[in-house]
Amino acid sequence: MRIFVSIILTVLAGSALAAIPENVEEFTLSNGIPVITRTIDNNDIEGLSLFLIGGSRALTEDIQGLERFALECAMMGSDEYPGPVWRELMDRTQAEWTSSFNYDFSRYHLRCAKDDLAALLLAFGDCLLNPEFSSQAVEQVRESSIQDLQEKYYTPDSWIWLVANDAFMPGHTYRNVPDGIEETVAGFTIDEAKDMLDERIRSGNILITHAGPTGSEELKEMLEEAFADIPEGGQEYEAVEPFQVPFDTVVVQHREIPTAYAVVKFNAPPQGHEDLLPFTAALTVVDDLLWQVLRTDHGLTYAVFSGTTSYQQNWGYMYVSSQQPVQACSLMAGVLVDAIENPMNVDIVRGTIEKSRTLENMRAASKDTQCWMMGSFEISTGDWRNGYTVFDNIEELTPEDLRVVLETWVGNGGWGIIADTTVVPFDQLQPWPLN
């Protein structure tokens, strides 16, 4: 169960413990694409991320998931690198592509050997600009996407987060799901995917980050050759609006399952706000307290945790799965209320801070994390350096600091519950106040 601590703490992690590194450079490609590169020559492995800025703001309810669908189809091959050629290049280089699609941006990350970077970037650029869009590849992407969505729906651990969104963020920009929903993905056409790429693959929508042994001058030449043909321009998006939760809310989904699942979401400081670090540290302490109270003291669950997100607008959350959801949710809310009303144990706070710093050191060696951190903080705060200074004041935090920041930010909660309402009556599943 305690693996969840590492998941929760990733929002705090990802930078070297020292000050801002000196080996980071910034430059701009001829078409306006900004690049941030950190030279790390401890081995011959490269990390490079391309961020497509917009996320949920680039979507509407009717085209949820279209950007992901279009990009995944494009990554099946291009005019110059049709499917078999593209796959042969991947096999020969043993390159690793990973993708993520969140509320603020889409991201493709490449991990490869230094000698293969130039060739892989050329192929990547051609896929973005001249995708093959073979009907077979498109249907393969569609089938895989729908299977993933169906699996998410039938896995309560995954689906409960979207049920909580129904309670916490109805009508909010982030309610447009980047992964899409089955109904939208099933109906996307090739022309719609092409139009989405034409609109989104613009220099003003893109940020590139790099961590690896290739120096900035050599990297710039590679990127110019691969991406210089991307048209200039892009979309201007308004800042993501704060969450408005006027009263405690619960959304219950009935399923005939033996174990109930519950998530509550509540306001948290936005990315870049000075309160985000102490708020996240406080919820990491709450995570330990939840395990002690719900698992150790009452034996109600094998899975309970809390944490904070890392988006332009954030929320805190608590999760529990239990065969006794009413008691579990009541106790979970009580743990948070107690943390708001009473300063936390100083030894627990100090231990949490040390765990945070240890995890940060462990993750600092990952070039994937370095690329994510520089890009994420540049997009959400306007300055990648904030990722390296986020821990500057953590040692100064006191239990009272954590209590006050929770009291300031935690307001009404949006509860999502998946349960068998023939066993747990609906009228018992009412929202539990958090503050």
Topology:
Layout: H1 3-9, E1 24-28, E2 34-39, E3 45-53, H2 66-74, H3 83-93, E4 96-101, E5 105-113, H4 117-129, H5 135-154, H6 156-168, H7 182-187, H8 190-200, E6 206-212, H9 216-227, E7 249-254, E8 260-268, H10 276-297, E9 303-308, E10 314-322, H11 325-341, H12 346-363, H13 367-381, H14 386-389, H15 399-409, E11 414-419
Helix pairs in contact: 2-8, 4-9, 10-11, 10-12, 10-15
Structure description:
The chain has 435 residues and is an alpha+beta fold. It has two domains: 18-227, 2-Layer Sandwich (Cytochrome Bc1 Complex, Chain A, domain 1); 249-428, Cytochrome Bc1 Complex, Chain A, domain 1. The protein contains 15 helices and eleven strands. It has helices at residues 3-9, 66-74, 83-93, 117-129, 135-154, 156-168, 182-187, 190-200, 216-227, 276-297, 325-341, 346-363, 367-381, 386-389, 399-409; strands at 24-28, 34-39, 45-53, 96-101, 105-113, 206-212, 249-254, 260-268, 303-308, 314-322, 414-419. The strands form two sheets. It has a six-stranded mixed β-sheet, with helices on one face. It is globular.
| Uncertain ranges | 1-18
**Could you name the CATH class of the largest domain?**
Alpha Beta
Q: Write the CATH architecture name of the largest domain.
A: 2-Layer Sandwich
How far from one another are the termini?
27 Å
- Could you spell the SSE succession in H and E letters? HEEEHHEEHHHHHEHEEHEEHHHHHE
Q: Can you give the helix content as a percent range?
A: 40-55%
Radius of gyration: 23 Å
Shape: globular
